[in-house]
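DM from R.C. (forwarded with permission)

"hey, sorry to bug you on a friday — could you get me a structure for this? deadline for the figure draft is monday and I only need the backbone to look sensible"
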Amino acid sequence: MLKIESFRIQITFKQLALGTSFFLFSSPTFAYIDPNIGGFLFQMLTPLFAIVMSAWMFAGDKIKEIWLRVRHTFNRKDPNNSDGL
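My reply, with the result:
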């Protein structure tokens, strides 16, 4: 009987068993990726990235503007308050 005293070794054995099962019980995949697909992906992902970043910048400016308005509203001094609070 194998007695394992370290928790780290138990995790390592579990990972080893899981990792080897991926290779032992895998079936061959007949996939082919065209070498020219990189250009197509670049043409699709670049505008998508630009749209996402533009939306992020636009939303960031609007959120910042709203936050400054709220902060300005709560930072106003009340002229009727004699305590200065």
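R.C.: lifesaver. The radius of gyration is 30 Å.
me: no worries. The chain is about 65% helix and 0% strand.
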